[in-house]
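Bumping with the actual sequence this time:
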Amino acid sequence: MRIGADFLPRLGSALVLAPLAVIAACWGGWPFTLLVTCAAVIVLWEWVRMVAAVPRTALLTVGGVAIVAAMLVLAVRPIPVAMAIIVLGGIASALVARGGRQRRIWAPFGVLYAGALALPPVVLRQEGSLGLISLIWLLAVVWSTDIAAYFCGRLIGGPKLWPRVSPNKTWSGSIGGTLFAMLGGMATLHVAGVHAPLLAAPVAVLVSIASQGGDLFESAMKRRFGVKDSSTLIPGHGGLMDRLDGFIAAAALALLIGLLRDPSALARGLLMW
């Protein structure tokens, strides 16, 4: 099996970011909310930078205020109000944006994208022990997808998944990532003592597919705007968005599933089948 040149940077960033994410999730409360909020604002900055949106300061101010306001609103848990604030922030960004048509179209979606990172983890974590389990489950599914897709793709090879957007990804990696994500999700629930029926396995499959879709989406964005990485924040491996693209899409889907199944207890709605 041939290891790519990006393996060591990926490993290094994972060894730093993964323990930080798990420790913050276990801690919960305002430290976790603060960490997620900061990450969302950084992702917003990377989005604005990527699409070369102007005026950058105004867009970051409008979007940042919307994200922080939404997170503060979550303290009293009216989730629809927090979502509405994010949407209004996107609309305000669209009104502020200047320049070419492409910049004006893409600029406001940065607020929505950053909001998709900010809201789901905090909302899920608020549900006590089951909230923590749901968050660890989500991390396990996303990380299992990434790791298994990387190694299965290089070990098995075969047809490319979407060569025009991401020439290194293969169908074997995608399928392997999905299968291991399902196993990782079920193992997490088993270890946590959550007796979820096998119907929870297809949820892990859907979340894994969403994670891979988020990765492909960011790759397509970078090709559209002609950038290699979302930023240079992480030495040797690009920006925070490059590491969280799959998690953002997976978290957004997990939140949607929880809302649809049990709006009063989203973690339970996500995991308990």
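The tokens above came from a reply further down the thread. The beta strands are 160-162, 166-170.
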